[in-house]
Specification:
Layout (H helix, E strand, L loop, with lengths): L10 H23 L6 H9 L5 H8 L7 E3 L15 E8 L2 E8 L10 H17 L3 E7 L7 H8 L1 H11 L4 E10 L4 H4 L3 E5 L4 E3 L3 H8 L5 H5 L1 H8 L4 E3 L2 H15 L37 H4 L9 E3 L7 E8 L2 E8 L5 H16 L4 E7 L6 H5 L2 H14 L4 E10 L1 H5 L9 E4 L4 E3 L3 H19 L5 H18 L2 H6 L12 H12 L16
Parallel strand pairs: 3-4, 4-5, 5-6, 5-7, 6-8, 11-12, 12-13, 13-14, 13-15
Antiparallel strand pairs: 1-2, 2-3, 9-10, 10-11
Helix pairs in contact: 4-6, 13-15, 17-18
Length: about 525
């Protein structure tokens, strides 16, 4: 049993709660704005037409009183694209089956596609494929945001490839058409296994009436060209004609039921007992300032079932906490940072990953890492070859990886702890999260040393005032670019979560991973001893 040394009455705990709550308040404010990002005027117009908003469609689609795990809700934050990227993606339960759901937000520019839409959609399909989740597309889009076609056209074809590859892999896809599916967007129903279209509302055509007029001088009305009734009776694109939106969602639920989908993972095997320590204390467990260390076991004690943790090599490489536990009954192996990675930590982590792969045990990486140790002693002690062992083990591990970022994620430490480039099944962050090549002070300091050495090499004096201004500007820029909001806006993770929701979110994610087989690797790349 993990015991707690957390003093909830201490000034440090109260300060962490206050600062983390402030950070979450900013995130929550951004989240609240997303459903009406297109503007209330367009929301009202949508309602006047008798249409549901995209999240309302999802609420009708999923089973009553079941959670919907929304992914990348703040994608595009800090960019020129709308926050949320104009689509909703996530995982929900339909007719008792976990499915991946995506839907267009028609209130923003007619649900048109922008560059961040493509990035968010790519991550969505990656998650669906890796976790073997049936896909439901709630489709209503004007197609590409034409003024930005140069950033959209070439990569935009990938989502059609994804649909066909999902089908080839035996992962079914269902498209429910509520409105237009224009130009390339028409291939979404075309490449789906099942298609439902709403009568007098849904359309699908490669070229709309204006383009047809310009291209072949034909006057065509929308229904004859690509209406739901035509596609249901004549072209065969539509498999089911719905009388209205609720009927379409009813048909979608029936289609999922008829899939008779079976999970291929072993599922939970434990009791799923609640932790001994209050999960509402998670918001004060981690330091809001990532430069201040804290014991990651306090987080584990409030996430793992029964606060039970069988620690591996507790006396060796103690800056990397490794061990076995469970979350909502799902067995997991945990690698959690309690400081910088030395050679011992890297070797310990490599062995632990191999052991978990041997027993087909999913891995949860809890990141609060400033990187691998540097310096003469570290280099002579083999930090590169030992760090390479850890990255080798992470790269070749085949059990599901879930990543939780509760603090810093700097340098190669991000790689060694299964960062975004290493294909984790899911990756969630807390609002205090920071991610960059290195900390802002360290990065600006390195660049200052480089500038001084360059000036010395040229035999010219250093302009101290200018150098100071450049260092301050660079530090401020890196500080801004390393925040949790900046990272989630660029789809480097699957969303910022409230710390107190961590156990629930990880449980939902683990359940989704068990839709696919859970099998460990038996081979790894060559590494030096």
């Amino acid at each position: 049993m993990l015991r707690t040394r957390l003093d909830t009455g201490s000034e440090q705990y109260r300060d962490n709660v206050a600062r983390m709550s402030e950070l979450w308040g900013t995130v929550a404010q951004e989240l609240a704005s997303v459903p009406t990002i297109g503007g209330q005027r367009y929301v009202d117009r949508h309602r006047r037409r008798g249409k549901l908003l995209v999240r309302e469609r999802i609420e009708v689609l999923v089973d009553p009183h079941t959670p919907f795990l929304e992914l990348s809700p703040l994608a595009a934050w800090g960019t020129d694209d709308p926050v949320g990227a104009g689509i909703v993606t996530g995982i929900g339960v339909v007719e008792g089956t976990e499915v991946a759901i995506t839907g267009s937000d028609i209130t923003y520019r007619g649900g048109s596609v922008n560059p961040t839409t493509l990035a968010k959609a790519a991550r969505f399909y990656e998650i669906a494929r890796a976790n073997r989740l049936p896909v439901i597309s709630l489709n209503e889009s004007a197609g590409a945001d034409l003024p930005r076609q140069a950033d959209i056209f070439v990569p935009g074809g990938a989502q059609f490839k994804e649909l066909t590859q999902l089908s080839a892999a035996g992962i079914p896809s269902i498209t429910i058409g509520f409105g237009p599916a224009t130009a390339g967007g028409a291939y979404i129903p075309g490449m789906s296994d099942h298609v439902v279209m709403v009568k007098d509302r849904a359309t699908a055509y490669l070229g709309g009436p204006p383009l047809v007029k310009m291209a072949i001088d034909e006057d065509a009305d929308e229904e004859s060209l690509g209406g739901a009734l035509m596609h249901s009776r004549t072209s065969g694109l539509s498999d089911h004609l719905a009388v209205d939106e609720l009927d379409a969602l009813r048909i979608g639920r029936a289609l999922v039921r008829d899939l008779r989908w079976q999970k291929q993972g072993p599922g939970p095997s434990g009791s799923g007992a609640a932790p001994l320590h209050d999960t509402d204390e998670l918001i004060g467990c981690a330091s809001a300032d990532v430069r201040v260390p804290f014991d990651v076991r306090e987080v584990l004690a409030r996430v793992l079932d029964g606060s039970e943790f069988d620690e591996f090599k507790p006396l060796y490489g103690d800056k990397l906490v490794c061990g076995w536990g469970a979350i909502h009954g799902f067995p997991v192996g945990v690698l959690a940072n309690n400081g910088i990675l030395f050679s011992e930590e890297a070797q310990k982590g490599s062995q632990f990953i191999q052991l978990c792969n041997r027993s087909d045990t999913p891995l949860v990486f809890v990141q609060n890492i400033t990187g691998f140790m540097v310096g003469t002693a570290a280099e002579q002690g083999g930090i590169i070859k030992n760090g390479a062992k850890l990255i080798n083990a992470v790269s070749n591990s085949t059990v599901p990886h879930l990543v939780l970022m509760v603090g810093a994620s700097y340098g190669a430490g991000n790689y060694g702890m299964s960062g975004r480039a290493y294909d984790p099944r899911f990756i969630f962050t807390w609002p205090n999260h920071r991610i960059a090549v290195m900390g802002p002070k360290q990065l600006s300091g390195v660049m200052e040393i480089v500038a001084r050495n360059a000036a010395a090499g040229k035999g010219v004096p250093v302009d101290e005032e200018q150098l100071g201004a450049q260092s301050a500007f660079l530090e401020a820029a890196i500080e801004e670019q390393s925040t949790a909001l900046f990272a989630t806006g660029r789809v480097w993770d699957d969303g910022i979560i409230h710390p107190n929701d961590t156990r629930t979110v990880l449980g939902l994610a683990l359940s989704a991973t068990h839709s696919a087989p859970v099998r460990g690797a038996s081979t790894y790349g060559v590494w030096r001893h």
